[in-house]
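ok new one. same drill as before - C-alpha cells go in, u give me an amino acid for every spot. 329 of them this time. try not to just spam alanines like last time pls lmao
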C-alpha cells in the first residue's frame, strides 16, 4: 500500500470534519468532491451557498453530502463573535462581529469551539494571513516556536529513504531562525514525521557545508543547533551540518560524511532559513513531480493548516487528509 493510500485508510477509519473557507476556488471544490465521494472526511464549505453550487455546477463538480455554511447567515456568528472577544482582549465585540463574518476567521472559530475538527486554507489567501490569524486564536501554551513542515512524497525514489516520504522544515514561516529556534524546529519536525509515518525520524541539519568543509556564521548556526538538539534529545538520530547529498545519498555519505549516524538515509530535512526551504520544496515538487502537502503547522492547539497558492488538487486532498489525521491525535 502506498503512503497516500495508507493515510487515506487511516483517515477513513476515524472520520473527521474539516472546514474549508475558500469554497470559490475550483481546486478546493474538486478536492472536496474526491474526499466526500471516497467517504474519507466530512467537509464544510464556507460562503454563499448559491454562488458555490453554481461554481461547482459550471465545472460538473458534485457537492452531494457537502455542508455549506454562510458566515453572514447563521446564528453561530454571534456565538463566535462573543467568544473571540473573550479570548482576545484587543478585540471589542463590534470588531469581533465583523471579523467572524470573514470565512478565514469563521472557519477557525468553528474549530476553536469544536464545531469542526480541522481547518485548511491558503489556496487563495497568503500564508501570512492564515498563520497570523491562527497564532492569534490557537497558539498552544508552552510552545516555544510555531513552525511548519512540508510533507513530501517523491515518486520513483531510490536514495536513502526508500519510500520517498520526507518532512521538509521550515519552508513557510520562520525566515531566519537562530540556532535555538532551529533546534526546536528540528526536534518538533522529527516528532511530526514519526506521527505521520510510524517510522523513526532521521534528521539532517542542512547547510552548504559538510562537517566543516566551509566555515561561516551560517554554518556555525547549524552546528550549534545540531549540538543543542542532540543534548536535548539524546535518542534522536540527528546530524549536521550536512550538504543535501551527504544527507540523502548513501554513496555520497560514505565519502563526505563516513562517520555520520545518518549514513545518507535522512528523512527529515531541516533547512537553515526560509529561502533555502521554500526553494527546495518547490524544486522537488516541480522537477521530481513530488506530491507536496502543507505547510502543516506545528505548535498550535488544533489542526490548522496552510496551502501554497500554487497547490494542486492532489496537494489539497493530501493536506486535508493529513489535517484529519492530526485531529485523530
Amino acid at each position: 500500500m502506498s503512503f497516500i493510500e495508507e493515510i487515506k485508510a487511516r483517515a477513513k477509519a476515524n472520520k473527521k470534519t474539516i472546514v474549508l473557507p475558500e469554497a470559490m476556488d475550483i481546486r478546493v471544490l474538486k478536492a472536496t468532491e474526491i474526499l466526500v465521494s471516497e467517504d474519507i472526511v466530512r467537509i464544510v464549505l464556507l460562503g454563499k451557498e448559491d454562488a458555490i453550487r453554481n461554481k461547482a455546477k459550471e465545472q460538473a463538480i458534485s457537492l452531494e453530502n457537502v455542508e455549506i455554511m454562510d458566515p453572514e447567515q447563521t446564528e453561530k456568528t454571534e456565538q463566535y463573535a462573543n467568544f473571540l472577544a473573550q479570548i482576545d482582549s484587543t478585540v471589542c465585540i463590534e470588531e469581533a462581529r465583523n471579523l467572524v463574518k470573514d470565512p478565514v476567521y469563521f472557519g477557525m472559530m468553528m474549530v476553536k469551539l469544536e464545531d469542526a475538527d480541522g481547518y485548511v486554507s491558503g489556496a487563495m489567501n497568503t500564508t501570512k494571513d492564515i498563520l497570523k490569524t491562527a497564532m492569534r486564536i490557537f497558539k498552544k501554551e508552552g510552545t516555544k516556536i510555531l513552525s511548519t513542515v512540508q510533507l513530501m512524497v517523491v515518486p520513483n525514489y531510490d536514495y536513502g529513504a526508500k519510500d520517498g516520504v520526507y518532512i521538509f522544515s521550515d519552508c513557510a514561516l520562520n525566515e531566519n531562525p537562530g540556532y535555538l529556534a532551529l533546534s526546536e524546529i528540528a526536534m518538533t519536525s522529527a516528532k511530526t514525521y514519526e506521527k505521520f509515518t510510524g517510522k523513526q525520524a532521521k534528521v539532517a541539519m542542512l547547510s552548504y557545508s559538510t562537517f566543516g568543509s566551509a566555515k561561516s556564521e551560517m554554518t556555525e548556526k547549524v552546528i550549534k543547533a545540531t549540538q543543542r538538539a542532540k543534548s536535548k534529545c539524546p535518542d534522536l538520530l540527528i546530524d549536521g551540518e550536512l550538504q543535501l547529498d551527504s544527507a540523502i545519498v548513501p554513496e555520497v555519505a560514505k565519502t563526505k560524511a563516513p562517520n555520520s549516524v545518518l549514513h545518507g538515509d535522512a528523512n527529515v530535512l531541516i533547512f537553515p532559513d526560509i529561502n533555502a526551504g521554500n526553494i527546495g520544496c518547490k524544486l522537488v515538487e516541480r522537477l521530481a513531480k513530488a506530491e507536496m502537502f502543507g505547510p502543516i503547522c506545528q505548535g498550535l492547539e488544533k489542526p490548522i493548516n496552510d496551502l501554497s497558492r500554487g497547490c494542486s488538487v492532489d496537494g489539497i486532498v493530501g493536506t486535508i487528509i493529513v489535517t484529519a489525521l492530526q485531529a485523530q491525535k
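Residues 16 and 41 are 5 Å apart (CA to CA). and btw The chain is about 45% helix and 15% strand.
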